[in-house]
């Protein structure tokens, strides 16, 4: 009886939650009494009262926060927990997408998009407008289509949006901005070939090829071809002509069995 009376006089001080959080507490039933004349309830943290930290929507608990009021009137337990905000979902849209009609297409073309980068579930948490753009491929006519992606975090409900355009353009081959003229070289001395160099052709979609190959005597046809994603193609064609110094056309001596290879119509792609 004396112990009960003594505990009835013991109470822990008010407990305040960390920023952004709130406390959910449970207390012994008999410690909650009516106020004067049946007025408002007075709640006291008697020994045995327990409080845990809760976080609102958009926040999550990091660490631990669980306290219990002890018989000495002091709170016991962990209190290093805090409520931290969930990050916005990651969603990286592509830049505006330009596609061309293929050579055999006149009205529509098939568009295939890479999925945007995100850290939530593509199937569950990402919405697309128009909805059918979420398919792996779809047909579009000439013109522009505005596409909107929205990603929602499954717990915090925070969301991120991004937009881009799909432009369907009439098909056209790459433009040839520069194509070399015929290159003429002469083999000198006792060499069997000559190193030909040229300024590379330039297309609207530049391609990388390597001049600097050895060519034997003769005429060599050089062909550059550029093509785009819609399979439209353009070519640049020019010749490398390798002549032999007339002084080397004499009959070889007994000490020299040197012969020049004559190569015609060699093609390079």
From TrEMBL:
The keyword Chloroplast does not apply. It comes from the Eukaryota. The keyword Magnesium does not apply. Residues 169-244 form the HYR domain. Residues 23-85 form the Sushi domain. Keywords: Disulfide bond, Repeat, Sushi. PANTHER family: HYR DOMAIN-CONTAINING PROTEIN, SUSHI_VON WILLEBRAND FACTOR TYPE A_EGF_PENTRAXIN DOMAIN-CONTAINING 1. This is Sushi domain-containing protein. It comes from Anopheles minimus.
């Amino acid at each position: 009886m004396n112990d009960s009376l003594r505990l009835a006089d013991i109470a822990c001080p008010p407990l305040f939650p960390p920023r952004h959080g709130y406390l959910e507490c449970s207390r012994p039933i008999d410690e909650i009494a009516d106020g004067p004349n049946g007025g408002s309830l007075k709640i006291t943290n008697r020994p045995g009262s327990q409080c845990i930290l809760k976080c609102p929507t958009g926040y999550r608990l990091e660490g631990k926060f669980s306290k219990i009021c002890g018989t000495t009137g002091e709170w016991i337990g962990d209190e290093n927990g805090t409520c931290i905000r969930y990050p916005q979902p990651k969603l990286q849209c592509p830049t505006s997408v330009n596609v061309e009609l293929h050579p055999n297409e006149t009205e529509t073309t098939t568009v295939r998009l890479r999925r945007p980068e995100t850290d939530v579930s593509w199937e569950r948490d990402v919405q697309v407008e128009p909805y059918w753009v979420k398919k792996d491929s779809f047909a579009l006519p000439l013109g522009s289509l505005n596409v909107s992606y929205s990603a929602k975090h499954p717990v915090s409900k925070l969301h991120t949006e991004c937009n881009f355009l799909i432009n369907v353009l009439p098909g056209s081959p790459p433009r040839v901005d520069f194509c070399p003229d015929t290159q003429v070289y002469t083999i000198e001395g006792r060499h069997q070939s000559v190193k030909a160099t040229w300024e590379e052709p330039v297309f609207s979609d530049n391609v990388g090829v390597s001049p600097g190959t050895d060519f034997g005597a003769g005429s060599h046809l050089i062909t550059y071809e550029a093509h785009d994603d819609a399979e439209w193609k353009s070519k640049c064609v020019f010749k490398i002509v390798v002549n032999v110094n007339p002084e080397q056309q004499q009959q070889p001596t007994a000490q020299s069995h040197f012969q020049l290879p004559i190569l015609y119509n060699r093609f390079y792609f």
